Known about the structure:
Layout: H1 2-37, H2 48-61, E1 69-74, E2 77-84, E3 95-100, E4 119-121, E5 124-126, H3 134-149, E6 158-163, H4 171-179, H5 181-184, E7 188-191, E8 196-199, E9 205-214, E10 216-225, E11 229-230, H6 239-252, H7 261-271, H8 276-287, H9 292-299, H10 302-305, E12 311-319, E13 325-326, E14 329-338, H11 344-355, E15 361-366, H12 378-391, E16 397-402, H13 408-413, E17 418-420, E18 425-426, E19 439-441, H14 442-459
Parallel strand pairs: 3-6, 3-7, 7-17, 8-18, 9-16
Antiparallel strand pairs: 1-2, 2-6, 4-5, 5-19, 8-9, 10-14, 10-15, 11-13, 12-14
The structure holds zinc ion (ZN).
Amino acid sequence: MKNIVLLTLLLVSFNTAYATQNTDHRARSLELFRELIGFRTAAGHEQVLPMARLLEQRFLAGGFAAEQVQVLPMKDTAALVVRYPGIADSGKRPIMLMAHMDVVDALPKDWVRDPFTLIEEEGYYYGRGTIDNKAGVVNLTTVFLRLKEEDYTPDRDLIIVFSGDEETTGYTMNTLLSDHRDLVDAEYALNSDGGGGVRDVDGKPISFNMQTAEKTYMTFTLTATNPGGHSSRPRADNAIYELAAALGKIADLRFPVRSNDTTRLYFRRSAELHSGELAAAMRAFADNPDDQAASDYLASQPSFNGLTRTTCVATLLDAGHAENALPQSATATVNCRVWPDESSASVQKALENAVDNSDIRVQLVDGYSSSPPSPLRDDLLAAIEQVLAQQHPATPIIPYMAPYFTDGKYTRGAGIPTYGVGGVFLGPDDHRAHGLDERIPVMSFYESQDFWYQLLKLLTGGDD
Ligand SMILES: [Zn+2]
Protein backbone atom coordinates (compact mmCIF):
# COMPACT_ATOMS: atom_id res chain seq x y z
CA MET A 1 0.00 0.00 0.00
CA LYS A 2 2.74 2.37 1.06
CA ASN A 3 4.56 1.60 -2.16
CA ILE A 4 1.50 2.39 -4.19
CA VAL A 5 1.11 5.74 -2.41
CA LEU A 6 4.77 6.54 -2.99
CA LEU A 7 4.51 5.52 -6.61
CA THR A 8 1.37 7.60 -7.03
CA LEU A 9 3.11 10.60 -5.46
CA LEU A 10 6.08 10.13 -7.74
CA LEU A 11 3.84 9.88 -10.78
CA VAL A 12 1.87 12.95 -9.74
CA SER A 13 5.02 15.02 -9.30
CA PHE A 14 6.44 13.72 -12.57
CA ASN A 15 3.21 14.55 -14.38
CA THR A 16 3.09 18.03 -12.85
CA ALA A 17 6.65 18.74 -13.95
CA TYR A 18 5.86 17.37 -17.39
CA ALA A 19 2.66 19.43 -17.63
CA THR A 20 4.38 22.68 -16.58
CA GLN A 21 7.14 22.20 -19.09
CA ASN A 22 4.57 21.25 -21.69
CA THR A 23 2.50 24.37 -21.05
CA ASP A 24 5.58 26.47 -21.60
CA HIS A 25 6.25 24.78 -24.96
CA ARG A 26 2.62 25.19 -25.93
CA ALA A 27 2.69 28.93 -25.27
CA ARG A 28 5.86 29.32 -27.31
CA SER A 29 4.54 27.21 -30.16
CA LEU A 30 1.36 29.28 -30.31
CA GLU A 31 3.46 32.44 -30.51
CA LEU A 32 5.44 30.93 -33.39
CA PHE A 33 2.23 29.75 -35.10
CA ARG A 34 0.90 33.31 -34.90
CA GLU A 35 4.07 34.72 -36.45
CA LEU A 36 4.17 32.17 -39.29
CA ILE A 37 0.51 32.62 -40.28
CA GLY A 38 1.36 36.34 -40.68
CA PHE A 39 3.68 35.60 -43.62
CA ARG A 40 1.74 35.46 -46.90
CA THR A 41 3.92 32.67 -48.27
CA ALA A 42 1.85 32.11 -51.41
CA ALA A 43 3.69 32.07 -54.77
CA GLY A 44 4.56 35.56 -56.00
CA HIS A 45 4.62 37.27 -52.59
CA GLU A 46 8.28 36.45 -51.78
CA GLN A 47 7.58 35.84 -48.11
CA VAL A 48 9.06 32.35 -47.82
CA LEU A 49 12.66 33.57 -47.45
CA PRO A 50 11.84 36.04 -44.64
CA MET A 51 9.85 33.31 -42.89
CA ALA A 52 12.77 30.86 -43.24
CA ARG A 53 15.08 33.54 -41.74
CA LEU A 54 12.80 33.92 -38.73
CA LEU A 55 12.80 30.15 -38.19
CA GLU A 56 16.61 30.13 -38.57
CA GLN A 57 16.84 32.67 -35.72
CA ARG A 58 14.65 30.48 -33.51
CA PHE A 59 16.82 27.42 -34.12
CA LEU A 60 20.04 29.37 -33.44
CA ALA A 61 18.54 30.85 -30.26
CA GLY A 62 17.51 27.31 -29.25
CA GLY A 63 21.12 26.11 -29.27
CA PHE A 64 21.64 24.78 -32.81
CA ALA A 65 25.03 25.58 -34.34
CA ALA A 66 25.17 27.79 -37.41
CA GLU A 67 26.31 24.93 -39.66
CA GLN A 68 23.35 22.83 -38.55
CA VAL A 69 20.82 25.41 -39.77
CA GLN A 70 20.85 26.20 -43.47
CA VAL A 71 18.60 28.57 -45.34
CA LEU A 72 18.89 27.97 -49.08
CA PRO A 73 17.37 30.77 -51.17
CA MET A 74 16.11 29.35 -54.49
CA LYS A 75 14.53 31.49 -57.22
CA ASP A 76 11.90 33.61 -55.43
CA THR A 77 11.48 31.14 -52.58
CA ALA A 78 13.70 29.16 -50.17
CA ALA A 79 14.26 25.91 -48.33
CA LEU A 80 15.33 25.41 -44.73
CA VAL A 81 17.33 22.39 -43.58
CA VAL A 82 18.13 21.77 -39.90
CA ARG A 83 20.20 18.85 -38.70
CA TYR A 84 19.77 17.50 -35.16
CA PRO A 85 22.87 15.40 -34.60
CA GLY A 86 22.44 11.94 -33.12
CA ILE A 87 24.94 9.36 -31.86
CA ALA A 88 27.67 9.50 -34.48
CA ASP A 89 28.70 5.83 -34.67
CA SER A 90 25.32 4.12 -34.31
CA GLY A 91 25.44 3.08 -37.95
CA LYS A 92 21.85 4.26 -38.39
CA ARG A 93 20.98 6.56 -41.25
CA PRO A 94 19.04 9.79 -40.62
CA ILE A 95 15.28 10.32 -40.63
CA MET A 96 14.01 13.26 -42.69
CA LEU A 97 11.13 15.31 -41.26
CA MET A 98 9.13 17.19 -43.89
CA ALA A 99 6.84 20.20 -44.03
CA HIS A 100 6.34 23.03 -46.52
CA MET A 101 6.48 26.74 -45.72
CA ASP A 102 4.43 27.99 -48.70
CA VAL A 103 0.63 28.16 -48.84
CA VAL A 104 -2.03 28.38 -51.52
CA ASP A 105 -2.97 32.05 -51.73
CA ALA A 106 -6.05 33.34 -49.93
CA LEU A 107 -7.95 36.48 -50.89
CA PRO A 108 -8.75 38.44 -47.72
CA LYS A 109 -11.97 39.81 -49.25
CA ASP A 110 -13.41 36.30 -49.60
CA TRP A 111 -12.65 35.22 -46.05
CA VAL A 112 -14.80 35.86 -43.00
CA ARG A 113 -11.61 36.59 -40.98
CA ASP A 114 -8.24 37.91 -42.19
CA PRO A 115 -6.48 34.80 -43.58
CA PHE A 116 -3.03 36.08 -42.56
CA THR A 117 -3.86 36.74 -38.90
CA LEU A 118 -4.14 33.77 -36.56
CA ILE A 119 -7.56 34.05 -34.93
CA GLU A 120 -8.78 31.77 -32.14
CA GLU A 121 -12.52 31.25 -32.09
CA GLU A 122 -14.68 28.59 -30.42
CA GLY A 123 -12.01 25.95 -30.17
CA TYR A 124 -10.34 26.58 -33.54
CA TYR A 125 -7.34 28.46 -34.85
CA TYR A 126 -8.28 30.09 -38.16
CA GLY A 127 -5.86 31.26 -40.85
CA ARG A 128 -4.36 30.28 -44.21
CA GLY A 129 -1.92 27.47 -43.62
CA THR A 130 -3.26 26.41 -40.21
CA ILE A 131 -3.76 22.90 -41.65
CA ASP A 132 -1.68 23.02 -44.81
CA ASN A 133 1.04 22.99 -43.58
CA LYS A 134 2.20 25.59 -41.05
CA ALA A 135 1.03 23.52 -38.07
CA GLY A 136 3.52 20.94 -39.37
CA VAL A 137 6.29 23.56 -39.55
CA VAL A 138 5.54 24.75 -36.00
CA ASN A 139 5.24 21.25 -34.56
CA LEU A 140 8.51 20.00 -35.99
CA THR A 141 10.31 23.20 -34.97
CA THR A 142 8.90 23.06 -31.44
CA VAL A 143 9.82 19.40 -31.03
CA PHE A 144 13.42 20.07 -32.15
CA LEU A 145 13.73 22.96 -29.68
CA ARG A 146 12.21 20.90 -26.90
CA LEU A 147 14.48 17.90 -27.46
CA LYS A 148 17.46 20.25 -27.60
CA GLU A 149 16.47 21.85 -24.31
CA GLU A 150 16.30 18.39 -22.74
CA ASP A 151 19.80 17.62 -24.08
CA TYR A 152 18.29 14.60 -25.79
CA THR A 153 20.57 12.66 -28.13
CA PRO A 154 18.75 10.54 -30.72
CA ASP A 155 20.35 7.30 -31.92
CA ARG A 156 20.69 8.82 -35.41
CA ASP A 157 20.54 12.27 -37.04
CA LEU A 158 17.16 13.89 -37.54
CA ILE A 159 16.87 16.32 -40.45
CA ILE A 160 14.13 18.89 -40.78
CA VAL A 161 13.51 19.76 -44.43
CA PHE A 162 11.09 22.63 -45.00
CA SER A 163 10.40 23.26 -48.68
CA GLY A 164 9.21 26.55 -50.16
CA ASP A 165 6.96 25.72 -53.13
CA GLU A 166 5.17 22.43 -52.53
CA GLU A 167 1.89 23.95 -53.69
CA THR A 168 3.30 25.03 -57.06
CA THR A 169 6.44 23.78 -58.76
CA GLY A 170 8.16 21.53 -56.21
CA TYR A 171 11.44 23.12 -57.31
CA THR A 172 12.94 23.46 -53.81
CA MET A 173 12.43 19.80 -52.84
CA ASN A 174 13.61 18.58 -56.22
CA THR A 175 16.73 20.76 -56.06
CA LEU A 176 17.56 19.62 -52.51
CA LEU A 177 17.31 16.01 -53.69
CA SER A 178 19.36 16.52 -56.85
CA ASP A 179 21.95 19.15 -55.84
CA HIS A 180 22.19 18.88 -52.04
CA ARG A 181 21.67 15.17 -51.48
CA ASP A 182 24.29 14.93 -48.69
CA LEU A 183 22.46 17.60 -46.73
CA VAL A 184 19.11 15.82 -46.80
CA ASP A 185 19.85 12.15 -47.47
CA ALA A 186 17.93 9.84 -45.14
CA GLU A 187 16.89 6.23 -44.63
CA TYR A 188 13.27 7.34 -44.77
CA ALA A 189 11.14 10.46 -44.38
CA LEU A 190 8.16 11.38 -42.21
CA ASN A 191 5.92 13.95 -43.84
CA SER A 192 3.73 16.24 -41.74
CA ASP A 193 1.89 17.19 -44.95
CA GLY A 194 0.08 13.86 -45.34
CA GLY A 195 -1.89 11.47 -43.19
CA GLY A 196 -3.48 12.23 -39.86
CA GLY A 197 -6.43 11.33 -37.72
CA VAL A 198 -10.12 11.20 -38.53
CA ARG A 199 -12.82 12.17 -36.03
CA ASP A 200 -16.54 11.61 -36.39
CA VAL A 201 -19.11 14.43 -36.04
CA ASP A 202 -19.00 14.07 -32.25
CA GLY A 203 -15.22 14.46 -32.18
CA LYS A 204 -14.55 10.80 -31.43
CA PRO A 205 -11.35 9.49 -33.12
CA ILE A 206 -12.16 6.87 -35.78
CA SER A 207 -8.85 6.13 -37.45
CA PHE A 208 -5.27 7.28 -37.97
CA ASN A 209 -4.39 7.41 -41.64
CA MET A 210 -0.80 6.94 -42.74
CA GLN A 211 0.02 7.95 -46.30
CA THR A 212 2.56 5.60 -47.90
CA ALA A 213 1.97 6.23 -51.60
CA GLU A 214 0.68 8.91 -53.91
CA LYS A 215 -0.88 8.40 -57.30
CA THR A 216 0.61 10.48 -60.07
CA TYR A 217 -1.25 12.86 -62.32
CA MET A 218 -1.08 12.91 -66.12
CA THR A 219 -3.12 14.78 -68.69
CA PHE A 220 -3.50 13.74 -72.33
CA THR A 221 -5.29 15.24 -75.31
CA LEU A 222 -7.05 13.17 -78.00
CA THR A 223 -7.32 15.02 -81.29
CA ALA A 224 -9.17 14.20 -84.52
CA THR A 225 -8.55 16.37 -87.59
CA ASN A 226 -10.38 16.60 -90.91
CA PRO A 227 -10.26 18.72 -94.10
CA GLY A 228 -13.69 20.10 -93.11
CA GLY A 229 -15.88 21.99 -95.58
CA HIS A 230 -19.36 23.47 -95.84
CA SER A 231 -21.97 21.97 -93.52
CA SER A 232 -24.43 21.78 -96.43
CA ARG A 233 -22.17 19.10 -97.97
CA PRO A 234 -21.57 16.61 -95.16
CA ARG A 235 -18.96 13.95 -95.85
CA ALA A 236 -18.77 10.52 -94.28
CA ASP A 237 -15.76 11.31 -92.10
CA ASN A 238 -16.17 13.96 -89.41
CA ALA A 239 -13.73 15.00 -86.68
CA ILE A 240 -16.45 15.30 -84.01
CA TYR A 241 -17.93 11.88 -84.77
CA GLU A 242 -14.48 10.31 -84.80
CA LEU A 243 -13.56 11.87 -81.50
CA ALA A 244 -16.92 10.92 -79.99
CA ALA A 245 -16.39 7.31 -81.03
CA ALA A 246 -12.90 7.38 -79.51
CA LEU A 247 -14.24 8.79 -76.24
CA GLY A 248 -16.85 6.02 -76.09
CA LYS A 249 -13.94 3.59 -76.05
CA ILE A 250 -12.14 5.58 -73.34
CA ALA A 251 -15.33 5.43 -71.27
CA ASP A 252 -15.20 1.63 -71.51
CA LEU A 253 -11.45 1.42 -70.84
CA ARG A 254 -10.67 -0.36 -67.60
CA PHE A 255 -7.04 -0.46 -66.56
CA PRO A 256 -5.89 -3.73 -64.97
CA VAL A 257 -6.59 -4.19 -61.27
CA ARG A 258 -3.63 -3.21 -59.12
CA SER A 259 -2.89 -3.50 -55.42
CA ASN A 260 0.03 -3.11 -53.03
CA ASP A 261 0.53 -3.76 -49.28
CA THR A 262 -0.83 -0.30 -48.55
CA THR A 263 -4.10 -0.65 -50.44
CA ARG A 264 -4.67 -4.23 -49.24
CA LEU A 265 -4.21 -3.23 -45.60
CA TYR A 266 -6.28 -0.10 -46.26
CA PHE A 267 -9.21 -2.21 -47.47
CA ARG A 268 -8.77 -4.79 -44.70
CA ARG A 269 -8.87 -2.16 -41.96
CA SER A 270 -11.49 0.06 -43.65
CA ALA A 271 -13.82 -2.95 -43.82
CA GLU A 272 -14.06 -2.72 -40.01
CA LEU A 273 -15.43 0.83 -40.35
CA HIS A 274 -18.07 -0.08 -42.96
CA SER A 275 -20.85 -2.64 -43.24
CA GLY A 276 -22.85 -4.70 -45.74
CA GLU A 277 -21.80 -5.28 -49.33
CA LEU A 278 -19.08 -2.61 -49.22
CA ALA A 279 -17.37 -4.15 -46.18
CA ALA A 280 -17.62 -7.62 -47.75
CA ALA A 281 -16.06 -6.40 -51.01
CA MET A 282 -13.25 -4.65 -49.13
CA ARG A 283 -12.48 -7.81 -47.19
CA ALA A 284 -12.64 -10.04 -50.27
CA PHE A 285 -10.36 -7.67 -52.22
CA ALA A 286 -7.86 -7.53 -49.34
CA ASP A 287 -7.76 -11.34 -49.26
CA ASN A 288 -7.51 -11.72 -53.00
CA PRO A 289 -7.18 -8.75 -55.38
CA ASP A 290 -7.94 -11.16 -58.26
CA ASP A 291 -11.49 -11.60 -56.92
CA GLN A 292 -13.23 -9.91 -59.80
CA ALA A 293 -16.63 -9.50 -58.17
CA ALA A 294 -14.94 -7.63 -55.32
CA SER A 295 -12.84 -5.34 -57.54
CA ASP A 296 -15.87 -4.67 -59.78
CA TYR A 297 -17.93 -3.66 -56.77
CA LEU A 298 -15.18 -1.33 -55.48
CA ALA A 299 -14.70 0.12 -58.97
CA SER A 300 -18.41 0.99 -59.06
CA GLN A 301 -17.90 3.25 -56.01
CA PRO A 302 -16.33 6.61 -57.00
CA SER A 303 -14.53 6.88 -53.62
CA PHE A 304 -12.76 3.54 -54.06
CA ASN A 305 -12.47 3.09 -57.83
CA GLY A 306 -9.14 4.93 -57.92
CA LEU A 307 -7.70 2.65 -55.23
CA THR A 308 -8.11 -0.41 -57.44
CA ARG A 309 -6.36 0.76 -60.63
CA THR A 310 -5.16 3.63 -62.82
CA THR A 311 -8.13 5.70 -64.00
CA CYS A 312 -8.51 8.08 -66.96
CA VAL A 313 -11.52 10.28 -67.56
CA ALA A 314 -12.54 12.89 -70.16
CA THR A 315 -12.71 16.34 -68.55
CA LEU A 316 -12.73 18.97 -71.38
CA LEU A 317 -13.89 19.21 -75.01
CA ASP A 318 -12.97 21.66 -77.76
CA ALA A 319 -14.31 21.06 -81.27
CA GLY A 320 -15.32 22.84 -84.46
CA HIS A 321 -15.05 26.51 -85.37
CA ALA A 322 -18.44 27.57 -86.84
CA GLU A 323 -21.99 26.30 -86.70
CA ASN A 324 -22.19 26.08 -90.51
CA ALA A 325 -18.80 24.46 -91.12
CA LEU A 326 -17.65 20.86 -90.92
CA PRO A 327 -15.23 20.57 -87.97
CA GLN A 328 -11.55 20.69 -88.92
CA SER A 329 -10.50 19.52 -85.50
CA ALA A 330 -11.92 18.08 -82.30
CA THR A 331 -9.92 17.70 -79.11
CA ALA A 332 -10.77 16.10 -75.79
CA THR A 333 -8.72 16.40 -72.60
CA VAL A 334 -8.35 13.19 -70.63
CA ASN A 335 -7.03 13.33 -67.07
CA CYS A 336 -5.42 10.23 -65.59
CA ARG A 337 -4.63 9.30 -61.97
CA VAL A 338 -1.91 6.79 -62.37
CA TRP A 339 -0.73 3.90 -60.21
CA PRO A 340 2.55 5.04 -58.63
CA ASP A 341 4.91 2.77 -60.59
CA GLU A 342 3.32 3.18 -64.05
CA SER A 343 4.97 5.37 -66.71
CA SER A 344 3.37 7.98 -68.96
CA ALA A 345 4.42 5.88 -71.96
CA SER A 346 2.47 2.86 -70.72
CA VAL A 347 -0.64 4.95 -70.03
CA GLN A 348 -0.41 6.57 -73.47
CA LYS A 349 -0.11 3.10 -75.05
CA ALA A 350 -3.22 1.92 -73.18
CA LEU A 351 -5.18 4.94 -74.44
CA GLU A 352 -3.99 4.41 -78.02
CA ASN A 353 -4.87 0.71 -77.90
CA ALA A 354 -8.33 1.46 -76.53
CA VAL A 355 -9.04 4.09 -79.21
CA ASP A 356 -7.62 1.80 -81.91
CA ASN A 357 -7.67 4.51 -84.60
CA SER A 358 -4.37 5.86 -85.87
CA ASP A 359 -6.13 9.05 -87.07
CA ILE A 360 -6.69 10.07 -83.45
CA ARG A 361 -3.55 11.68 -82.07
CA VAL A 362 -2.90 10.98 -78.37
CA GLN A 363 -0.50 13.47 -76.74
CA LEU A 364 0.82 13.86 -73.22
CA VAL A 365 0.39 17.50 -72.16
CA ASP A 366 1.26 17.25 -68.49
CA GLY A 367 2.99 14.40 -66.78
CA TYR A 368 5.14 13.56 -63.81
CA SER A 369 7.71 10.92 -63.15
CA SER A 370 6.64 7.84 -61.26
CA SER A 371 7.02 7.48 -57.52
CA PRO A 372 7.00 3.98 -56.03
CA PRO A 373 4.88 3.21 -52.95
CA SER A 374 6.86 3.04 -49.71
CA PRO A 375 7.04 -0.37 -48.02
CA LEU A 376 5.30 -0.57 -44.64
CA ARG A 377 7.81 -0.43 -41.76
CA ASP A 378 7.07 -2.48 -38.66
CA ASP A 379 9.13 -0.19 -36.41
CA LEU A 380 7.17 2.86 -37.54
CA LEU A 381 3.78 1.16 -37.25
CA ALA A 382 4.68 -0.08 -33.75
CA ALA A 383 5.83 3.38 -32.66
CA ILE A 384 2.69 5.08 -33.96
CA GLU A 385 0.55 2.40 -32.30
CA GLN A 386 2.32 3.08 -29.01
CA VAL A 387 1.74 6.84 -29.20
CA LEU A 388 -1.90 6.37 -30.21
CA ALA A 389 -2.42 3.93 -27.33
CA GLN A 390 -1.79 6.88 -24.99
CA GLN A 391 -3.51 9.62 -26.96
CA HIS A 392 -6.46 7.83 -28.57
CA PRO A 393 -6.64 4.22 -27.42
CA ALA A 394 -8.03 1.65 -29.87
CA THR A 395 -7.69 3.89 -32.92
CA PRO A 396 -6.70 1.73 -35.93
CA ILE A 397 -3.84 2.80 -38.22
CA ILE A 398 -4.94 2.73 -41.85
CA PRO A 399 -2.22 3.03 -44.49
CA TYR A 400 -3.45 4.70 -47.67
CA MET A 401 -2.45 5.83 -51.12
CA ALA A 402 -3.36 9.46 -51.79
CA PRO A 403 -5.13 10.32 -55.05
CA TYR A 404 -3.27 13.69 -54.99
CA PHE A 405 0.42 14.40 -54.41
CA THR A 406 2.79 16.29 -52.08
CA ASP A 407 6.59 16.68 -51.85
CA GLY A 408 6.48 13.00 -50.84
CA LYS A 409 6.18 12.14 -54.51
CA TYR A 410 9.64 13.60 -55.15
CA THR A 411 11.32 12.02 -52.11
CA ARG A 412 9.85 8.62 -53.01
CA GLY A 413 10.90 9.15 -56.61
CA ALA A 414 14.44 9.86 -55.34
CA GLY A 415 14.55 6.58 -53.42
CA ILE A 416 13.64 7.81 -49.92
CA PRO A 417 10.59 5.90 -48.61
CA THR A 418 8.16 8.49 -47.24
CA TYR A 419 5.32 8.25 -44.76
CA GLY A 420 2.63 10.90 -44.28
CA VAL A 421 1.95 10.85 -40.55
CA GLY A 422 0.68 14.39 -39.91
CA GLY A 423 -0.76 13.53 -36.52
CA VAL A 424 -3.51 16.17 -36.71
CA PHE A 425 -7.01 14.79 -35.98
CA LEU A 426 -9.74 16.49 -38.02
CA GLY A 427 -13.52 16.26 -38.04
CA PRO A 428 -15.76 16.10 -41.13
CA ASP A 429 -16.01 19.91 -41.36
CA ASP A 430 -12.32 20.64 -40.87
CA HIS A 431 -11.01 19.70 -44.34
CA ARG A 432 -10.50 23.22 -45.62
CA ALA A 433 -6.94 23.11 -46.93
CA HIS A 434 -6.67 25.33 -50.04
CA GLY A 435 -10.24 26.57 -49.33
CA LEU A 436 -11.98 29.31 -47.39
CA ASP A 437 -11.77 29.76 -43.62
CA GLU A 438 -9.08 27.11 -43.15
CA ARG A 439 -8.84 26.09 -39.50
CA ILE A 440 -7.35 23.58 -37.09
CA PRO A 441 -8.99 22.45 -33.83
CA VAL A 442 -6.96 23.95 -30.95
CA MET A 443 -6.87 20.58 -29.21
CA SER A 444 -5.64 18.81 -32.36
CA PHE A 445 -2.83 21.34 -32.81
CA TYR A 446 -1.34 20.58 -29.39
CA GLU A 447 -2.07 16.86 -29.55
CA SER A 448 -0.18 16.61 -32.83
CA GLN A 449 2.79 18.35 -31.20
CA ASP A 450 2.85 15.72 -28.44
CA PHE A 451 2.40 13.07 -31.12
CA TRP A 452 5.58 14.15 -32.93
CA TYR A 453 7.53 14.52 -29.70
CA GLN A 454 6.72 11.01 -28.53
CA LEU A 455 7.02 9.43 -31.96
CA LEU A 456 10.50 10.83 -32.59
CA LYS A 457 11.71 9.70 -29.19
CA LEU A 458 10.36 6.19 -29.73
CA LEU A 459 11.96 5.97 -33.16
CA THR A 460 15.37 7.16 -32.00
CA GLY A 461 15.99 5.13 -28.90
CA GLY A 462 14.28 7.33 -26.30
CA ASP A 463 11.65 5.66 -24.16
CA ASP A 464 8.96 8.30 -24.10
ZN1 LIG B 1 0.35 20.70 -48.15
